[in-house]
What we know:
It is a single chain. By secondary structure, the chain is of the alpha/beta class. It has one domain (14-228): 3-Layer(aba) Sandwich (Rossmann fold). It is built from eight helices and nine strands. Strand 8 (207-208) and strand 9 form a beta hairpin. It is globular. The chain starts with a helix and ends in a 17-residue tail after the last helix.
Amino acid sequence: MSTFIDDLSSGIVKREMVLFFVIDQSGSMAGENIGIVNNTIREVIPELKTVGGADVDLKIAVLLFSSGYQWMHTEPVPVENFVWNTIQANGATDFGKACNELNNKLSRSGFLKSPSGSVAPAIFLMSDGQPTDDYKESIEKLKNNSWFKHAIKIAVAIGEDADTNALAEFTGTNEAVVTTHTGEDLRKMIRFVSITSTQIGSKSQPAKDGEVQTKQEDMVQQVQEFVQNDESLNQDTIPTEEEHW
């Protein structure tokens, strides 16, 4: 009995949650946009250290894509040890390659191999442009990935040139895509999505009117409310009816 209690207090039996940042670092992101991404995520990481709660250990993984893809770190890093490395913007927008790589890592043999088990991840996609490779087949592979199906998926379209259709294909619905029009909007959404997706993902879902709302549904609802309550964000960026792909 004492061994079990010691295990609980040391966190050995905690399940693991991975927050994935999937970030477009193509040439069009150069300047203000990439600067805001760098600064805001670096600033929000300390706040995430207290979000996971008693039952879940939070880890961070960062997938960058431009001409090809790369991981900021070779494996998910515990939030208390995570260091954000400043990223630069250049190259094309190989969204399909990023989706293929994400599919590879969303597995027990990839980034979700915690001995104590993993909860469904949260995946936060940011892009300001159009995919420059054929991403359709990669999206279809992701849709068949069980971890991806149950993940929280939110995308931020940065500016009017972002391909919101491609982002909605990724998240499964237009309602999970928010367009930001200013640098301040981008800052607000990065902070909100990072913290809220981690809060929802790390906790069990309570029953509402006898039914258990999925974590994705809960996240989309909170995003909609956040946007509707913010005058600068509320510019018809989220449609009133859900559209599934």
